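Worked example

This section walks through a single chain of length 23. The input is the sequence exactly as stored; nothing has been trimmed or padded.
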Amino acid sequence: ILTTFPLLTTLARSTSRFLGERR
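Given that input, the structure is written out below as tokens.
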């Protein structure tokens, strides 16, 4: 789970940035 945490955070951040740019 510890190793998955960073990956999930990066994915969420990337998605948030994508949505922000798209908007």
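What to look for: Helices lie at 4-22.
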